[in-house]
Amino acid sequence: MSGTDSEGIRLNKYIASSGLCSRREADKYIELGQVTINGITAVQGSKVLAGDIVEVSGKKITPEDSMVYIAFNKPLGVTCTTDKRDPSNIIDYIGYSERIFPVGRLDKNSSGLILLTNDGSIVNKLLRAENGHEKEYLVTVNRPYDKSFIKSMESGVPVLGQLTLPCRVLPTGASTFRIILHQGLNRQIRRMCEYLGYKVTRLKRIRFMNIDLGDLETGKWRYLTAKEKSGLLKDIE
Questions:
Q1: Does the annotation mark 27 as catalytic?
Q2: pTM tops 0.90
Q3: pLDDT (tens digit, 9 = 90+) per residue, 42-66?
């Protein structure tokens, strides 16, 4: 955590840095016995060390300045895994100085936008299919498609024992289209196309919820803007 030394950071400062309240108000929470560190009721003057879990009135507190949110334009061949035994793992490719992990995954043979963060509290919320978060892709298939292909894709096709949720398909060429999904089954777009007799030759994600890939170069990453971050966190509340 930014600002933490070997002796830790004062508890009231740690709480205040989360945006919950001021240091003075944090002291009141501590005096009332409403603050715990690793499940143990804290006292005035307590210090927070790296890895400690702080809760105020039962709610976990995380300093805003310690959270990292990154947008990465994943190249082909990079694997969305934190397993360092895989030489193509995304963590080594980016080489970020702190521990981060990808939100979801893109196939090794797919490219485009993927988010990485050290905020474990948001990952499951982002990945839950029932939340209906939009994901947009550019797709190229191996031959020209027709209107029936679009209709079938949008209505839903059998994938992994279930019918895919309705989606939106926007033609961009004879064999290219944009598709907006609200779910994330394993290799979903490829499986949908295969079911209809087409093979995906190129797949690139260009948007995840309110985050656009924009003109971010392949293999490069950037921090989310304040507007992107606030919109992302608001959408998963």
A1: no
A2: no
A3: 999 999 987 789 999 998 887 766 7
